[in-house]
Amino acid sequence: MTSSVIESRGGPRLTEREELRRQVSEVVGAAPVFDMHTHLFAPEFGGLNLSGIDELLTYHYLVAETFRSAEVSYESFWRMSKSEQADLVWRTLFVEHTPVSEAARGVVTVLDSFGLDTAAEDLKEARAFFREQDAASHLGRVLELAGVSDVVMTNDPFDAREARVWEGDGGIDRRFHAALRMDGLLNDWEGSAAALQARGYEVDRGVSGKTAGEVRRFLDVWIERMRPLYMAVSLPDDFEHPAADARDRVIREVVLPTARAHHLPFALMVGVRRGVNPALRAAGDGVGRASVRAVERLCAENAGVRFLATFLSRENQHELCVSARKFPNLLPFGCWWFLNNPSIIKEITRERLELLGTSFVAQHSDARVLEQLIYKWKHSRRCLADVLADSYERLLESGRAVTRAEVERDAARLFDGNFRAWVGQAPPAESRSNR
Ligand code: RAT
Ligand code: ZN
What we know:
Layout: E1 5-6, E2 13-14, H1 17-30, E3 33-35, H2 53-57, H3 60-69, H4 74-79, H5 82-95, H6 102-113, H7 124-132, H8 135-146, E4 148-152, H9 160-166, E5 176-177, E6 180-181, H10 183-187, H11 189-198, H12 211-226, E7 231-235, H13 246-262, E8 266-270, E9 272-273, E10 286-287, H14 292-301, E11 307-311, H15 317-326, E12 330-332, H16 342-356, H17 372-398, H18 404-423, H19 429-432
Parallel strand pairs: 3-4, 4-5, 6-7, 7-8, 8-11, 11-12
Antiparallel strand pairs: 1-2, 9-10
Helix pairs in contact: 1-17, 1-18, 3-5, 6-17, 8-17, 12-13, 15-16, 16-17
Bound molecules: D-arabinaric acid and zinc ion.
Zinc ion binds near residues 37, 39 and 366.
């Protein structure tokens, strides 16, 4: 025992600042993560899996940044092949400019973790490295480097490429879990109604008659096939509840009854303004301050349904924390998309710890390309470690030192346990006996 610790029943208490911070960093750096929202796919989905340097560089976050510094028109960029686009992004953001933005630094973190040149003039070495990798062992290595035990996908029941896998006989890699994405049904009811009619479901555009029952029948089939951990939707900044639109009817008459019947949580991702600049394609979405009250009303009216919620606007974060204090069926999660930057992650996480203790999900990666797991989690772990250490230091000043076991318990809760409990997943086997 060093002078920095005093013994207690839960292990030594960390009473010295530097030792406390060192241990917090170690624990948070190693805590296994249940990544509860990504756009990755299990290996069985074949071509839907994105990996490698060209995919990393053409990530829509970096495409938007490239247009700010490169002399290229939208038309000529979109006419380029993927590797030409990647070359342009690399030259613009990594060679001609310093890659200090979060998304650009992310690529540096990934290259560095594989021992590749982070300041190369071109992509020859990186391309050769990724070409040589065996897909299965590379997946294992990436999950290991990222410290991710479980990955939740985003699964669209209307996507024909996904459907072929779900409808096949084979199972899905056990490290991957489904999330049933409802954007089609809730944000494009007319298009979805037509797609359902084409599949033989008796629905109409006015959401009347048999429609609700038929959409529930469609969802029941997909829930049976996918076994999702939750249903999810991204919503615009002007989302309201109640509202006199098809979306609200489908939420009330289809989604909420389905959530109750299948004990499935409903994840609300609120505040995206799709297609603010359509010429940027997937990079063209923006953000707007949304109404947290709409989510509060859903929680109040549906006490038996568990909601997950994340808001895209920084301005909504404090209100979301206050709402979560009022509604035990509301679990805030992650620092989404434009908020996934160290300065904002730290601010939001501090706010959440101060208002909610450790009763939230600290982060999700939103990774679209496999290797992004490495940087998204490395960077987020750093933020959480700093913020947690600050909280423990303040606690120490107030007269209560934490033990390493307590730090481990908190990190496990924030990265894994809160989400697992919400979606009814058993704790990981090795830690079961510890709880
Ligand atoms: O973060 C992203 O990659 C966004 O494009 C969106 O996919 C967002 O996360 C979403 O799930 O709608
Ligand atoms: Zn996403």
